Amino acid sequence: MATIYVDESSGSDETGKGTQEAPYQTLAFAIFTHGPTTTILSRKDAATTYEEPTQSALKKAKKGADGLEKKRKKAEELAEREAKEKSEERERKQKLLEESKKIVLSEDSSLPKAIKSKIGNLTPLRAKRVRASGWVHRLRDQNKIIFIVLRDGTGYLQCVLSGQVAQTYEALTLTLESTVELVGTLQPVPEGKTAPGGHELIVDYWKVLGASPGGEDAFTNRLNEKSDPSIQADLRHLVIRGETASAVLKLRAALLSSFRESLVSRDLLEVTPPCMVQTQVEGGATLFKFDYYGQPAFLTQSSQLYLETCLPSLGDVFCVQESFRAENSHTRRHLSEYTHLEAELAFITFDDLMNHIEGVICDTVARLLANPSSAGLIKQLNPNFTAPARPFRRLSYVDAIAWLNEHGIQHEAEDADGNVIRDEQGNPKMVDHAVGDDIAEAAERRMTDILGTPVFLYGFPAELKAFYMKKIQNNGSGPVCTESVDLLMPGVGEIVGGSMRIADTEELFAAYKREGIDPTPYYWFTDQRKYGTCEHGGYGLGVERFLAWLANRYTVRECSLYPRWPGRATP
Ligand code: 4AD
């Protein structure tokens, strides 16, 4: 038999093999593993030589080996006992399952007729027998009592199953996300306990409508908090079943209703402009093009031009319509498709426009906070939310440039072709802002975060803005500026973009020319100036950005039902 080696300092009983290259650490372990008759050589450390251990060392080691053997036996016994218990438990469960199949529930017709209700409408039905259907949101089995938290979109309901109703095969094999119908008496929760709505359903009859798989394919194996973002994006249809994601979508619905109420109360009429168009609004670079019966067409970037055409027939108007931007922006505030709330107002001044935007936003937020259900959602998602104070701060573009420079907020320098200039290490060269520069997203975000309140940033140079914006008469110094305004919110940045529009036909033709736009397909927009022009203006608000601000979401992607961004149009 080969000689076994022990090195008391560098050897290891865990990873060693008893060879010279990988010695054990203790004599006891060597004897325990290879038996007392093996030849063993041992040394204190690498500075000494391998020698036969002394008799007394061997004696001590044998005792140690006996101890190890006892330990091993004990562990073996324990494992056997556990395996036996497990198999008994399995058998017991199997038997219980078999038994459970014999229990068949039937609804007791002598009980009062159950009233079918959505969870959200249950409160007036306390003490009555009710019937509720939904998805098993949470499931807990405690001393033969099964607690289900049922979800139906209108709310959550705690349901208690005990006795026979908790012993059926369906009860014992129930899984999360299964659909069930539960019938029972609605009772206030016992003192000291809490449950959604303050009541619980004491179930006397129930059935599974659609069982959700368990095991490998169980819901929580498909998706859980640790799932990586790309999986969460693929499984958005399952993500929205979650408490946070669904709360955001509920708040979104409340937000849209609230906006509509605020706008209608200001005599704006809702219209529905087309999504398939043949004109651009915000520049050709972000247009999604498609073939429309052999003609080029686009998905709309903004419904503004159509809203303008409604003024003479319908007065002030608004729409809530999808807008599409083919921007290759992977930021937390850009989507390829977003919900655009746009409004257009006739016979107004630039100041009226800003007052209107501020009024609509504050009114909408006040409505949301006055409604217990939407106020609850805001509290759940953004506990520190406080409504913004009026008036909003107004900062001109020129003053904002000075502010950025005073606060040392620089931007990346670009060469004449628009490429970022980098140093030898590849870091971008940072420079101060100058009047005429675009204020990039990063700088804008830092500014809003430092200011900490909503800010109207107004009067951008015409060069930086869309063709339709009204110019401010200047005294010949500095760039030609526009009656344009962005509303910036802390944490998100720009949420509204608006302006006064060119009302004069000649000025509009000059603007088409400057932007290299062929006026022909815009004949209907131009006619607006020809047949009774008026001073008018409007704005577009990004609903997802507004919601990200209101609900304190990290990205607009959480604020859209099925968000689209570059490379993502599924599900
Ligand atoms: O500033 P924008 O491009 O303005 C317009 O489209 C005007 N025609 C609107 C009008 O005056 N009727 O866009 C308006 C708002 C932005 O402030 C932003 O909130 C949102 O639309 N927005 C986007 N939201 C998400 N993803 C994108 N890619 C967005 N682009 C603009």
UniProtKB/TrEMBL annotation:
It is found in: Cytoplasm. GO terms for cellular component: cytoplasm. Its EC number is 6.1.1.22. It comes from the Eukaryota. It holds the Pfam family AsnRS_N. GO terms for molecular function: asparagine-tRNA ligase activity; ATP binding; nucleic acid binding. InterPro entries: Aa-tRNA-synt_II, aa-tRNA-synth_II, aa-tRNA-synth_II/BPL/LPL, Asn-tRNA-ligase, AsnRS_N, Asp/Asn-tRNA-synth_IIb, NA-bd_OB-fold, NA-bd_OB_tRNA. CDD domains: AsnRS_cyto_like_N (cd04323), AsxRS_core (cd00776). It catalyses: tRNA(Asn) + L-asparagine + ATP = L-asparaginyl-tRNA(Asn) + AMP + diphosphate + H(+). The keyword Plastid does not apply. PANTHER family: ASPARAGINE--TRNA LIGASE, CYTOPLASMIC (PTHR22594:SF16), ASPARTYL/LYSYL-TRNA SYNTHETASE (PTHR22594). This is asparagine--tRNA ligase. The lineage of its organism: Eukaryota, Fungi, Dikarya, Basidiomycota, Agaricomycotina.
